[in-house]
Amino acid sequence: MLGPVILAASRSDRMRRLVTAAPVTRQVVDRFIAGETVDDVVPIVRDLTAKGLELTLDVVGEDITTPEQATAARDAYLLLIDRLGALGLGERAEVSVKLSMFGQALPDGHDIAHRNVRRVVEAADAIGTTVTLDAEDHTTLDSMFAIHEDLRRDFPKTGCVIQAYLFRTEADARRLAASGSRVRLVKGAYKEPAEVAYQDKREIDKAYVRILRVLMDGDCYPMVGSHDPRLISIAQELAHRAQRKPDEYEFQMLYGIRGEEHLRLAAEGHRMRVYTAYGTDWYGYFMRRLAEKPANLRFFVRSTLTK
Ligand code: FDA
């Protein structure tokens, strides 16, 4: 029951001010956010790749309100890609972007976000890596899918995310499965109304399995984004039945969550990619992580009160 309340708070400016000013927030945030700057994150990229893991890097931020902020977000990604290229890490680390951070909600936002993300995709391609477009709330998805389709004409490896909790997703999955795209399937992390999304955890899990089967049986490159042990073993079984080789799908999990499982899957010979977020505008990302597991909220409140 706490999850929806936290998700509502994730879009409140008042809560943002309270949480980001709390005395020990940084200590709790550090579990999920790999640092504030590119310099902070580079040692983590080196460490995880040395352990046989791959990464997708996210510069945290979303829902910006001015074109200047969108340009700054784009430039933060260009700086990251430049650094990955200079260090020769392009093959092991790709990037994930949120189009709302690139200006999608501004007037003419679709075109602004499209222009900004294209620059990032071009830079990523130049160092031999790829970009995945994260899925945000359902009102943004038609625009995201249109941008994804357009980018794929020039950069076919550009990926996108689909969310199992949305009713629309099975149809999106069929389209993407036939297109040869890279597709990350996740359960979905936003507060969505009952008109568009399953609310019941079991229904979401059932939808996840149905959609995963579509992806595994299709021509696309499935990226299984989940920490759920049951879904991970179902994914292994579906990949096996579809006769996919280990380099024809991958698992993805978030930095700070079930780290031992990252290593176990990599040791078993699976491709395992860690979604690693860093930056200063961490509020929305952090609140979604709290909402996914109420125990995280208890830890956060306890450490704030005992300070
Ligand atoms: P579930 O929530 O059932 O968790 C399974 C188990 O994992 C839990 O029992 C717990 O042990 C552990 N766990 C999960 N979340 C935890 C947390 N926050 N803290 C501690 N333990 C936790 N969503 C979205 O809407 N758009 C997107 O673009 C993305 N992108 C994305 C990329 C990647 C790589 C991942 C793994 C996830 C996303 N998500 C996302 C988030 C996703 O929608 C979902 O909210 C989380 O992955 C949690 O769902 P699980 O599948 O892990 O299952």
From TrEMBL:
Entry keywords, A to Z: FAD, Flavoprotein, Nucleotide-binding, Oxidoreductase, Proline metabolism
Pfam families: Pro_dh
Group of enzyme by EC: oxidoreductase
Record-annotated Proline dehydrogenase domain positions: 45-299
Tree of life domain: Bacteria
Entry EC no(s): 1.5.5.2
Binding site for FAD: Q163, K187, G188, A189, K201, S226, H227
One example GO MF annotation: proline dehydrogenase activity
PANTHER family noted in UniProt: PROLINE DEHYDROGENASE 1, MITOCHONDRIAL, PROLINE OXIDASE
UniProt-recorded name of the protein: proline dehydrogenase
Source organism: Streptomyces roseirectus
